[in-house]
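DM from R.C. (forwarded with permission)

"hey, sorry to bug you on a friday — could you get me a structure for this? deadline for the figure draft is monday and I only need the backbone to look sensible"
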Amino acid sequence: MDKIIEALHTLGVEVAYNSRNDLAINGKKISGNAQCNKGEYTIHHGSLLYDMDFSKMAKYLNPPKYKIESKGIKSVRDRTGNISDCLSKKWDIATFRQKLINEILKKDYQPYQLTVKEELIVEQLAQDKFRSWDWTFGKNPAFTMVKAKKFPAGFLKVSLNIQHGIIQNCAFHGDFFSYGDLNHLEQALANQTFTYETVKQILIEQKANQLFYQITIEEILACIFE
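My reply, with the result:
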């Protein structure tokens, strides 16, 4: 995210961190970011609002009420802005995108060009896996309980499928950052009795305090059981 800030500064946009995963111009959010860890791999992605039609955004985005209230604003529109409004010269989106890429790459990085063989492999993987119904929808279990809580480090949602007092499935979601793959913790909780003591023991054994960024084991337990 520092690279994005530096590049935007070079283009004349005075942007700064607004939270651990948001960038803002004069308090107006123009970028949100998220991160996922799977084994040895980490994917970090973010968005940039360049010339957004806010009437459409307000129609399709419906954030939890606590997020609006916690920021002291009335709506999504009140807290978002466009990069294009802050430029001395307004470029079309393609020009802005290329200028931003050039600024990011010019110092430390070189773009990698996929070979024809690699492009075919990527396309085949997309077709066989990532565009499939099973990948998008089929892996969502029918959870019977969803608990959520807002912490300073982010929003945590825990989905649980419990049958006869036994955790069948468990999944952690939210806008918090994690230090590792949460799948191992989710698997460790499966087939365990749904009691405070058992869940706490699993969280300790799996070192959950080292997986969630600035969210403690006690806070996770509070989210699940309170």
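R.C.: lifesaver. Confidence is low (pLDDT under 50) at residues 68-75.
me: no worries. Residues 1-108 form a domain with the BirA Bifunctional Protein; domain 2 fold (CATH 3.30.930.10).
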